[in-house]
Design goal:
229 residues, single chain, alpha+beta, four-stranded antiparallel β-sheet, globular
Length: 229
């Protein structure tokens, strides 16, 4: 595809591409394609052949699984600048282990795994650097699994808020939510009504302040102490 300059710069700076030399990156970029999805549109289903991985340019993608009863569990919400599907290319007979769908109008770069794997075969040092990137992502996912299985619902909510909090223009710690309450509850493996109850409890205790789709954290240390209790 013919990339816009800003898209090309974003892709060049991404951890999965920054280690390549300019010539190799140019070849990879030439083989990439732009994918545009409507809200709710499926990108791939669990079990589909994994012929590409993706980098989010704008919008949001949810990675999810469904039980036999039809219940949906959201495993991750991928934001602009994030990638997904790259680890699958190292498997034998790669298939996507989860499904992916846009939660809002979304644009992505689709990178063919065949082209990327060939570039790695041509440069062992790049392989080692990529291994470090994937190892860090694996460590993050293992930590998330531990939180889901070992911590209470309240602890999981507090950890999630503290992890996502960032200072706003006034210096307050703020968490902005693009996802729905149901999607957030699914991420935390709790019921929406439990999430509502916990949010009210934290607000009544003065540990958080509700501001539309945002949550303000007046004192992160107090909130962390509540989660550790």
């Amino acid at each position: 595809m013919l990339m816009q300059a800003t898209t090309r710069e974003s892709l060049r700076a991404h951890p999965l591409f920054v280690a390549f030399d300019d010539d190799t990156f140019d070849r990879l970029a030439a083989g990439a394609t732009l994918v545009v999805l409507d809200a709710g549109q499926i990108l791939f289903q669990r079990g589909d052949p994994a012929r590409a991985f993706f980098i989010v340019l704008g919008g949001q993608v949810k990675l999810f699984m469904q039980s036999r009863a039809g219940d949906e569990k959201i495993l991750a919400l991928e934001q602009p600048g994030q990638s997904f599907g790259e680890a699958v290319m190292f498997m034998q007979g790669p298939m996507y282990p989860v499904s992916a769908a846009a939660t809002e109008p979304t644009s992505l770069v689709s990178m063919p795994t065949r082209d990327y794997m060939q570039a790695l075969r041509d440069d062992v040092n790049t392989c080692l650097r990529l291994l470090g990137v994937l190892s860090q992502r694996l460590h993050t996912h293992v930590q998330e699994i531990e939180e889901l299985t070992l911590e209470s619902a309240g602890n999981r909510l507090v950890r999630h808020l503290l992890r996502r909090a960032a200072p706003d223009s006034e210096g307050h710690q703020r968490v902005h939510f693009d996802e729905t309450r149901q999607m957030l509850a699914s991420q935390l493996a709790i019921k929406p009504e439990t999430l509502s109850r916990l949010t009210r409890t934290l607000a009544d205790a003065g540990l958080i302040e509700l501001d539309g789709r945002d949550i303000l954290i007046p004192d992160p240390r107090r909130l962390e102490a509540w989660g550790d209790r």
